[in-house]
Amino acid sequence: MDYVQYSLSPIPFEPWNEILVAELSEIGFESFMEEEKIVLAYIPESSENTVAIESILDSFKTKNDLVFTWSRKNIEHQNWNAVWESNFEPVFIENSLSIVAPFHDASFRRNRVIEIDPKMSFGTGHHQTTFLMCQEILSLSLEGKSILDMGTGTGVLAILAEQLGAKQCIAIDIESWSVENTKSNALRNGCTKIIALEGGSSKIPSMQFDYIFANINKNVLKEQMKTYALNLKPDGILLLSGFFITDVDELVLFANKLGLSKVGIREKENWALIKLKKQ
Fold it and tell me: What is the pLDDT of residues 196-210, one digit of tens each?
């Protein structure tokens, strides 16, 4: 699969970098990196809607107190791993977890370690939302619990859950290459309890889970939250991320109508995680 890279240069960089990521993630962009005050945004060429993309990007040119330029180029599939490898730094979470790539040596492998080959998948731990999810999961008691990981990406959350004692992890993603990446990363980390499935919420097995993780954009979370509530055990926990702190009140109100109550919030650089409990 070929990808398209958009190079986005907002001045000032913050908070416009995060606003760009939020808006573009809702129209098919899957991965983002920051490089010298430039946001690099990646979308499959087959998913690229240039009219929608240019409409969003051109709207930034009209913002007061913002100077904004952008450019576009095609990225061949075989170049993607080189792009990731040149930018992939190890991630350290809570002095408890190291997320590394295969080329990182022992000096980067501290305490609990997850090794992933990210390829084209989202979920390396670098983005604030994945960091928040890992941070919260590390605080949970998952021994013997059943887990559903929606929008699994690299599979890093499911891998962490199994490392913490989960008895079963269903990992679902709409992209076939994410599913294959999750399977590969699970094998790489010696996991045997992760089942990776391709599709959306219709692929959720007809069972109830102790914990559901969903690190997806806000609109998809609202579309699927009723299904999550139905597939969550009484007193089960739903972790949501993929949105800004300014979206929290809207999502909590929406969740309350489905019998889900807020029990906690985490925040990192204006991105948020909500912890919900089924009543």
Answer: 999 989 999 999 999
DSSP string across 14-33: TTHHHHHHHHHHTTT--EEE
8's tokens: 């986005």
Backbone angles phi, psi at 66, to 5 degrees: -135, 130
70 is written with which tokens? 């952008």
Q: For the whole model, what pTM was predicted?
A: 0.74
Calculate what percentage of the chain has a pLDDT beyond 90.
58
Cα–Cα dist 152/173, whole Å: 6
Q: Which domains does the chain show, CATH number per domain?
A: 3-79 (3.30.70.260), 135-278 (3.40.50.150)
Q: Which residues contact 30 (CB under 8 A, 6 or more apart)?
A: 42, 43, 44, 120, 121, 122, 175
Phi, psi of 218 (to 5 degrees): -55, -45
Residues 165 and 143 sit within 8 Å (Cβ to Cβ) = yes
